[in-house]
Automatic annotation (TrEMBL):
This is Nucleobase:cation symporter-2 family protein. Keywords: Cell membrane, Membrane, Transmembrane, Transmembrane helix, Transport. It is found in: Cell membrane. Signal peptide: none annotated. Its main location: membrane. The lineage of its organism: Bacteria, Bacillati, Actinomycetota, Actinomycetes, Kitasatosporales.
């Protein structure tokens, strides 16, 4: 019996190039949190490079846990793990509230360790929520993941610095558009291996095209060391403060919610649906990776949704490809010069490729919704309201500005709020009340349904909704 595509081992060259493509897709997302937090603390350029390399190294370790797995740890799906962006706001809040900035990272690391350990033991209980994720819920959440990531691509397309004069310039947007066109052309007119690495080729071509415009910066390569190791607890022994621990535990709940949604999405895409056992193992990998990460000076880890789009687009479903990508991340963490090569890719070029990657995630969600019986008024309402709730942080970023900071950690995650809304509405409309109301067919979500049967015509009246 042939191996499932998820367990397939590809030829070495194909494994390496497609694994590198995964690294290119998620690199900016991994390095952004340490750059933001490090800048808030006021780290020197050398220390900032060290912190960034440490986050790359720990992302690779977490990816190994997720893809290869040990014991009951790891979903064994093609998942890339890295620093979750959900932790940026509370981490910068910890920095702001710490008088001695040299204590900020030890306090953050202590809080992440505690949150990771608690999350590890909570994983099997959290995974039981799988029964609350039918296609109408998973399709909505997958769609929201794609929609929520698209603004990231649009931001990249405008440039790396929103305060810069050339942010959103015709040059930056043009480079993003050219990269997008290159990827589309390669996907349309090539076959086989070249078609599968279209995103990687698009990134290389876009970077070369950007050189004459002065957008490509090779300084990171020249300034980087050849060899470096993230010395354990380089910034000091972890410190444990209650406020920081509570804050990071909230982030862990948000991260576990998003990871559950990501695993359900990827399971659909690779044709190996994520069951309760898989989700529990995947959450253990996330949380254990998070608990280990601070030892090597990294932050909380979570599954990277943008790489789901790459799997969906390339159709390469092998978890070993992603494991190779994890190997590249570890090497980049140990070799700052290698890490800097990815940093050479201009942000607008990444933005052009990101449109394809993140849009593919949203399209996968729509494909799942096709199986969700949207001819039923209940399901249409579930999707409509959940999407609206999930899009609030994108469409109106200041919508929750008057809420407490801890509440905004959850509310500002459209994926989490949309997921919760979909689950609650599905329970309300399709389960609570004695029997499912899915039998009601209507032509418009705002109209009451009416089921006309042959027998009722003979009696001269219609059966009202919910009657038999």
């Amino acid at each position: 019996m042939a191996d499932h595509p998820v367990d397939e081992k590809l030829p070495p060259l194909k494994m390496a190039t497609t694994g590198l493509q995964h690294v290119a897709a998620m690199y900016a997302g991994v390095v952004a949190p340490p750059l933001i937090v490090g800048a808030a603390i006021g780290l020197s350029a050398t220390e900032l490079t060290f912190l960034t390399g440490a986050c790359l190294f720990t992302a690779g370790l977490a990816t190994f846990l997720q893809t290869l797995g040990i014991w009951k740890i790891g979903a064994r799906l093609p998942f890339v793990n890295g620093v979750t962006f959900a932790g940026v706001a509370p981490m910068t809040a910890v920095v702001a509230s710490t008088d001695d900035k040299s204590d900020a990272l030890p306090i953050i690391f202590g809080a992440v360790i505690v949150a990771g350990v608690l999350g590890f033991f909570a994983a099997p209980f959290f995974s039981k929520a799988i029964r609350f994720f039918p296609p109408v819920v998973t399709g909505t959440v997958i769609t929201l993941i794609g929609i929520s990531l698209l603004p990231v691509a649009f931001g990249w397309a405008q440039g790396p610095d929103a305060a810069a004069d050339d942010y959103g310039s015709a040059t930056n947007l043009g480079l993003a558009a050219i990269t997008l066109v290159i990827v589309l052309v390669l996907r349309r007119f090539t076959r086989g291996f070249v078609k599968q690495i279209a995103v990687l080729l698009g990134l290389v071509a876009g970077t070369l095209i950007a050189i004459p415009f002065g957008v490509t910066d090779f300084a990171p390569v020249a300034d980087a060391d050849v060899v470096g190791f993230p010395t354990p607890f380089h910034f000091g022994a972890p410190q444990f403060q209650i406020a920081a621990i509570v804050s990071m535990c909230v982030v862990m709940v948000v991260s576990m919610t998003e990871s559950t949604a990501d695993m359900l999405a990827l399971g659909e895409i690779v044709d190996r649906p994520a069951d309760e056992k898989t989700i529990a193992a995947g959450l253990r990998a996330d949380t254990l990776g998070s608990a280990i990460s601070p030892v090597f000076n990294g932050f909380m880890c979570s599954a990277f949704a943008q790489n789901i789009g790459l799997v969906a687009m390339t159709k390469i479903r092998s978890r070993y490809v992603v494991a190779v990508g994890g190997g590249f991340l570890v090497l980049m963490g140990l070799c700052p010069m290698a890490a800097s090569l990815i940093a050479v890719v201009p942000r607008p070029v990444l933005g052009g490729a990101g449109v394809v990657l993140f849009g593919s995630v949203a399209a996968s969600g729509i494909q799942t919704l096709v199986r969700a019986s949207l001819d039923k008024d209940n399901n249409v309402l579930i999707v409509a309201v959940s999407l609206a709730v999930g899009i609030i942080p994108i469409a109106a970023p200041e919508f929750y500005h008057s809420f407490p900071e801890n509440a905004k950690i959850i509310l500002d995650s459209g994926i989490s709020t949309g997921c919760v809304a979909a689950v609650v509405l599905n329970l309300l409309f399709n389960h609570i009340g004695g029997r499912s109301r899915e039998a009601e067919d209507v032509t418009h979500p705002m109209e009451a349904g009416e089921e006309i049967t042959e027998a009722s015509r003979e009696r001269g009246h219609a059966v009202t909704p919910g009657t038999t």
